[in-house]
Every structure is written in C-alpha cells, then in structure tokens.
C-alpha cells in the first residue's frame, strides 16, 4: 500500500518541513505500507482554471504541473495531509 503524505504549506518559513523530517522516519517503522512525502513546493500548482470540473477531467489538465500532480496522487492508495499550522477548535 502506498500512502502519500502531503506537506500542505509552500511558505518560505514553515513548520511542516521540520515535522516531515521527523515524521517520515517514524512512518518507515510500519512495514505494511510505503509512505512518500509529497511536498507542494515540488508541484507549483496554478489556481484551478480548467473549463470542466476536476472529476470530469480525470487527469486531462492543460497545465503540465497539474498533470504531474494528478499522476502522482493517482499512484497512491491513500493520502494524509500534514498541515501543522491549522488550529482545530
């Protein structure tokens, strides 16, 4: 099973990078799944401006980065978001 851990901040100063450096080795202890860090900085996605809904496009995006991201996400069996700056109340 492949699980993508999405680092959800692209700011220059972000806490998530430090957390990801700690988290990924911890996750490697689980041998029944493979975890891959998906850093949004590696995918400079544009705002969604396609003419169809995302579901209808099924990867047929006009932007090459959106295509690359779509393919990466589609290759995963599951996703987890790492959003350390969100306060849950």
Could you list the spans in which at least 5 consecutive residues all have pLDDT below 50? Answer: none
Distance between the termini: 32 Å
- In the sheet with the most strands, the strands line up as 2-1-3
The CATH architecture is 3-Layer(aba) Sandwich
Strand residue percentage: 15-25%
Structural class: alpha/beta
Let me know the largest β-sheet: 3 strands, parallel
Number of helices: 3
In CATH's first tier, which class applies?
Alpha Beta
The gist of it:
With 89 residues, this protein is an alpha/beta fold. 30% of the residues lie in helices and 19% in strands.
Walk me through what this model shows:
With 89 residues, the chain is an alpha/beta fold. The chain has one domain (2-82): Rossmann fold (3-Layer(aba) Sandwich). 30% of the residues lie in helices and 19% in strands. The chain has helices at 16-27, 54-57, 64-74; strands spanning 2-7, 34-39, 78-82. A three-stranded parallel sheet has the order 2-1-3.
